[in-house]
Amino acid sequence: MLLSTTTYPEVHTYLYMSEKGKKSWKxxxxxxxxxxxxxxTKGTSKDPRHLQFFSDFSQxxxxxxxxxxxxxxxxxxxxxxxKPNKTxxxxxxKLLCAESEESKSCWVTALRLYKHGKQFYQNYLRPHQNNDxxxxxxxxxxxxxxxxxxxxxxxxxxxxxIENPTEALSIAVQEGLLWRRKSCGRxxxxxxxxxxxxxxxxxxxxxxxxxxxxxxxxxxxxxxIHQQGLVNGVFLVRDSQSTPKSFVLSLCHGQKIKHFQIxxxxxxxxxxxxxxxxxxxxxxxxQLVEFHQLNRGILxxxxxxxxxxxxx
Length: 312
Known about the structure:
Elements: E1 11-18, E2 25-33, E3 36-40, E4 51-55, E5 60-64, H1 68-72, E6 79-84, E7 94-97, H2 101-129, H3 138-144, E8 152-153, E9 160-161, H4 165-175, H5 178-184, H6 195-204, E10 212-213, H7 218-228, E11 234-239, E12 247-253, E13 256-267, E14 270-274, H8 285-294, E15 305-306
Parallel strand pairs: 10-11, 11-15
Antiparallel strand pairs: 1-2, 1-7, 2-3, 3-4, 5-6, 6-7, 8-9, 11-12, 12-13, 13-14
């Protein structure tokens, strides 16, 4: 499953949850999505209006409860919990209980997949790296987690991590097109770079990315983000319906969905893309997305969770 798809499975069923400050347990319909764990306030409805946020599993660990019925008064012994990583997290531990061993195993496996999926994928790829370094697909690694990227400075004798977001933005603006020209340059039979080939590759490189939604309307984009969950940083990139050959970044922030125009511009004969009227330019949409996963730029927040196509 990890190798055949870039999306995460959606898990949903009834679970018992321990009510905070009480010894009682309440049965709720839970839904697991990439943006977090939710429960429905209206029966088995998965409509975003009826989903209540329960936990962000990226900041906690998943454990199985031993003797859940005896130790915690659970209705069954098929218990598990979400314990925050921070000091004193045991006090904020969230207890859940399934109706069967099969259901418990399904939930624990899915939660760990959502949390550690990137590491699982890296562990699979590592033995193959020495055999075929050139065949290693970096774009596939990028699609596993947008939060794994860091800004790097390669200008000096030693490589260093750029921790200051302002410095990262300044360097990115100064370097501009150099980011991908160095990696995408090709040489023809006469020893000259093939600029036209690079331009065609840069135009099409976003088509294989999971965050790109081809021929998706504004209304469809808003529906997809609603289905994913109105969490800061949920985003997708789509074709613009009003402006030919341009794109739109649809982003959730503050429980609202905002749309930002991505315009194509020419710079020295090269096709580039910009969100800020040309102040910051990118040779393709993948570079634009990667940059804004690290830096806000003109956006209200960084890009955190790309929106997948959810089928209800």
